[in-house]
Write a structure and sequence with these properties.
The complex is a heterodimer of chains A (348) and B (114). In chain A, 41% of the residues lie in helices and 18% in strands. Chain A is built from 13 helices and 14 strands. The N and C termini of chain A lie far apart (40 Å). The longest helix of chain B has 31 residues. Classes of the chains: A alpha/beta (348), B mainly alpha (114).
Chain lengths: 348, 114
């Protein structure tokens, strides 16, 4: 029930003072987990659960441009927590922020080395023969390339969330490189990485007034404890960018932005190329209507580009994080994701 | 559903056209050209300042940021070489998937694969 005007003012004052004192920063990524494998900056986590009911295990491959705690944001809005409570065995492949030693990592480093090795570790750890792969944002690109390039890797199902495909639709940042105004090396620092600050500025510039609008929303709902906790967690995550390996960035500019190779369905990879039509496992393409980072128009074509006979689409009326936070996540996204995963898994 | 307060309606009335205008401006050729010049100018100025500071620091025998970066990049290069050697050695002993038996799917009838 909504409190009255006076009560709201009291709550607003209390939460406002706590905010100014920095006392109401929520605890994020609280779901218990164990590190089961690591290599260089790759970390494979398995989340603890007594209710593992479905097989195969799920491996979530996180993006290279953000921190993975968005998938386990708050106890009541955690996608990972939800999947665990529904009986799935959840692993997360996460990346420690890169340092100069990772500057020359390429897409092949992740697609041909880290991810297959991590899948091997998942199979051993869960005593399984196959995995369900979930790729979030740029992690989706990595999982698509893996599924297309490595038929020997036992991927039973593939789901991508907010994953870019058509880079003409990716807006300002992509256009700067696509039309040749900027080259990849123009934004790399002396260590060969794209600095986190450059990515942050790029994302902020996509919606210049959003920062102010979000603060106004925050003030308007300052009386609401649940809103404040969610807002602070998301706002903290949104500015908590990580550096991006220069080698992957050069390839992203050349292959994905300038050649728009994902949209053509044929992506240069290693000494050859991979075809999205070679992805034959069941596939779910989940994207969000109001996503400004990966617009729906960019993700949409993936549905028709993969070669699977079992292709589904989940279109949400939300933004980039609509799969993991907010009302849309709880009411629409999670139950549908759960339904698709359950339908494509073995029970018991 | 509760109605937004008056101040919020006033804010939205100003913000919405402003947001639409600023987003369109950012997509414009003029803005993108300006942004490119700004990025290049910033980099050039930073380089000039760092170069000048480095010369002064070296004159007095001090270590500069550039020296630390060069050292850091050399260490990074060594780390990469060690990784490559370790990976080569491991790949000789273990196949893909950490030695876990891979299930082979039906080969695709279409196109080249690496």
């Amino acid at each position: 029930m909504t409190p009255g005007l006076i009560e709201r003012q009291i709550l607003r004052t209390r939460n406002g003072l706590a905010y100014l004192a920095g006392a109401n920063r929520p605890d994020m990524a609280q779901t218990p987990r164990d590190l089961v494998w690591s290599r260089d900056k790759a970390r494979l986590w398995r989340y603890r659960s007594d209710e593992r009911r479905f097989r195969p295990p799920i491996l979530i491959v996180h993006s290279l441009v953000s921190k993975s705690y968005i998938l386990d944001l708050l106890p009541n809005t955690s996608l990972i927590g939800y999947l665990l409570s529904e009986g799935f065995d959840v692993f997360l492949l996460d990346w420690v922020p890169p340092d100069p030693a990772d500057a020359e990592n390429t897409l092949e480093t992740y697609v041909d080395e880290y991810i297959p090795e991590a899948i091997g570790a998942v199979l051993d750890e869960a005593d399984a023969d196959e995995v369900t792969l979930i790729g979030y944002c740029f992690g989706g690109v990595l999982t698509l390339l893996l599924a297309a390039a490595h038929s020997e890797v036992p991927v039973r199902n593939l789901m991508v969330m907010a994953t870019p495909c058509d880079y003409r639709e990716m807006g300002f940042m992509s256009n700067m490189f696509r039309e040749g105004r900027l080259n990849a090396d123009d934004v790399l620092d002396e260590t060969g990485l794209v600095p986190a600050s450059a990515l942050d500025e790029g994302f902020q510039s996509l919606k210049p007034t959003e920062y102010v609008t979000q603060r106004v929303n925050f003030f308007q709902n300052l009386w609401n404890d649940e809103f404040v906790a969610g807002f602070l967690a998301i706002a903290f995550w949104a500015r908590d960018q990580v550096s991006f390996p220069g080698g992957v960035f050069r390839q992203t500019v050349d292959r994905l932005i300038r050649q728009n190779a994902l949209l053509s369905g044929v992506v240069p990879h290693g000494r050859g190329e991979v075809r999205l039509s070679d992805i034959r496992c069941p596939f779910l393409n989940a994207y969000a209507e109001q996503d400004t980072i990966t617009p729906a128009a960019s993700s949409e074509p993936l549905t028709r580009l993969v070669g699977s006979d079992d292709v589904s689409e989940l279109r949400l009326e939300s933004g980039h994080i609509g799969f993991v936070a907010g009302r849309q996540a709880a009411k629409v996204a999670r139950p549908q994701i759960r339904g698709w995963l359950a339908d494509h898994s073995d029970d018991g | 559903m509760t109605m937004p307060p008056l101040w919020r309606k006033a804010f939205d009335a100003i913000e919405r056209p402003l947001a639409a205008g600023s987003e369109a401006w950012i997509q414009s050729e003029t803005f993108m050209d300006l942004a490119v010049h700004s990025v290049r100018l910033q980099r050039r100025m930073l380089h000039e300042v760092q170069h000048a500071t480095e010369r002064w620091l070296h004159l007095f025998g001090y270590v500069s940021r550039g020296d630390v970066l060069r050292l850091s990049n050399q260490v990074a290069s060594l780390e990469r070489q060690i990784r490559d050697l370790r990976r080569e050695a491991e790949q000789r002993d273990h196949p893909l998937l950490n030695g876990h038996r891979a299930r082979r799917r039906q080969p695709s009838s279409r196109g080249a694969r690496r």
